[in-house]
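QA checklist item 7 of 12: single-chain prediction sanity check.
[x] sequence parsed
[x] length recorded as 153
[x] structure emitted
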Amino acid sequence: MAEISPGAHVHNEAQLGDGVSVAPGAVIYAGARIGAGTEIGACAVVHAGTVIGARCVIESGVTLGKRPRLRPGSSAARKGVLRPLKLADDVIVCCGAVVYAGSTIAHLVIIGDQSQVRERVSIGASSIVGRGSSVDFDATLGERVSIQSGVYV
């Protein structure tokens, strides 16, 4: 059974696995699926359709599955509908990071504090995105890639 703190908002159509904990101020929208043993930090936001694997740690202030706001004529807008964000098992997303819809994050990935992972990004297993880094849309990072802090890819 999931443990939902007072002050958290979990939509009744979200699916939470056994042992999920949701801290105060967190918001989980309809259609989100969260795997067993995952921790959702204070004031984190999990957008509709986002899939989070088991045993993940989503720290305070993280935003997952955000859809980008695109200007008319944007080349990103011409690439079609974004699939939901997918995080595999044992992923850690640190404080204040934003991971957009359409991305796929493999197991054992760490996304550092205040990092941004844009839409349609694929990050391979056991990779690290350093604090304050930005991985722009359509980028693909292989397995065991380590990006230093403050880097733009």
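[x] summary fact logged: DSSP finds no helices and 22 strands in the chain.
[ ] second reviewer sign-off
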